[in-house]
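ARCHIVE CARD
Drawer: 12
Card no.: 0347
Subject: one protein chain, sequence and derived structure
Cross-reference: see card 0346
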Amino acid sequence: MEPWTYLPNPWRTAVLELPRDCLGLLEEVRFRLNRPVYCYGTNGVVPLKIASQVMTIQQQDLDHIVGIIADHSLYARTEELRQGFLSLPGGHRVGVAGKAVWKGGQVVTMTDISGLNFRRARNIRGAAQSLISLFRRQQLDMKSVLVAGPPRSGKTTLLRDLIRMVSESGERVAVIDERSELAAYHRGHYGFDLGAHIDVLDGWPKAEGMMLAIRTLGPDRVVVDELGNGEDLPAVRRALTAGVKVVASVHAGTCEDLRCQPTWGLSLLELFDSVAILQSPGHPGVVREVWHKNQKIWQNAS
């Protein structure tokens, strides 16, 4: 199911009644306090309407929508909310904007919700084929691969297909799915087919999940999405020194972006032999260039 099907009415009906070509290319529906609701797709941006009138969103509307998608139990979703999202079945995610609540010097949750972004998860079979073929042509072993790209460039889309392809080749793959996006596990079912040789640690923090997988599951490879804090890199290093291959993703537009980040750059480029940089948004999962040991070895000609 698409993420907008979890909206209450009248917003669900308004989205589902969009013209077919618009609905098929829809990527996001964004709700912002006291502003029109907008639908973003590969064919442009249009306001959401009902009976020819542009829909706007009020505080009570946002609170109602959040209550519905959280099953009226925000307390049970505190960790997700602290990280700025709420997950939906099917690997979809709702980004949340609001006021941070601090306790003991840390953000513990969010209140006064002022914006929601319903974002569609994409599953593109074959998205990783060109990358894997390139590694084979270059005789690279894919021991440590970092997928980098700006938001909405298809990092998770590419990772899903890469997991499926290496799993189908017989590798034992442990997927650390902290946000339930890669495998989209929900109530006993996987939303995406990632192959026969996978073990999914759903909801586990990346660093803790990687260590647990290595101790108990004996993977050939671990895969994590969106490296994001100081605990993740040491866990990646421990996995590699334990002889386990690692594939991960990170937000960055260019290899130079990785070098210029004082906290991340050098450590990332030291840890990962290979870096695949994705195209800008609008080309989900398409690789723009590949680097290996700080040397560019391939660039998309298009």
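Annotation on reverse: The CA atoms of residues 107 and 150 lie 25 Å apart. The first strand starts at residue 26 and ends at 32.
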